[in-house]
Amino acid sequence: MIQNVTIAASFGIVALVLVFLLKRSSKRRRFALIEARRAKYAPNYGGEEGEPTPILGRLTEDLDDVEIVAYDQRGVARNQNVQFLRLLVADLFEDEELDETEEEEQRAALVEERQAWIEENEEQLDQHASLVEEEEIGSGVSVMEVIAPEDDDIEERLEREGGKGGQVQVSLAWDDYNDLDMHVFCPSGERIYFNNKTSECGGELDVDMNVRPVSNNAVENVVWTENAPVGKYKIGVHFYKHHRKRRSKRTVTFRLRVMVHGKSRDYSGAITAGNAMQMVTSFTLKEPEPHSEEDNHSDQNL
User: Model-level pTM?
Assistant: First the structure.
């Protein structure tokens, strides 16, 4: 009996040791992935000499308890605003399995239906966007420590869809058939989105997916290929339409990447059908500081 207890205890100790070793190994792998990602994406997010410097906006994780309460109250008001303006999009088509010909026919028809809905509700959409634009706090969470480099496929999706790169680039990715839309509020006061794909300040929405549910690894892309204006940029995400294809859920997890002069920052969030447009993050491009004669003299002495 005593021998059996001793054997059982020994097995228990061995199991605990194995669990400890596995946890330590997992932790090491996680930190290795963090370091690899930091090396790849330069988390200092600073501009090179002579380039505008991006200043990041605050996120909900930066708020104290009092600020969180105020933020949540504004969130309730934004969701009520969606209901008040009657901006919930009704199902325009039944989401059924179609062959390629039927899919293409309905895709074209759905684009027309959406455009008609936009024109009918354009004033209300602009009112709601203006309310969201007032928000100074982003609800995205930086996931630099979470996304493993080998799981990062935003660049592959953009290449697949012909998305461009540039001085400022904002990319949205999600993994089901729902229709999410990105809204970028520009320093010029313009808003780039599906109904205004090119701004006078040089920005362009060059990839817009899932008007019809065609992809479960979708991506959207807004880019300034050159001459990105200085000033404040805000990025919002809107759950435009819930497609029921293949059990797509009413709450979607998304990833958003902001790339400024080759340096990137990644965010993750979740948005639910029927809720307000979500302000994810903001950043401000400042003019590069002039290089003085004194700086030149100091550089020569380095």
Answer: 0.73
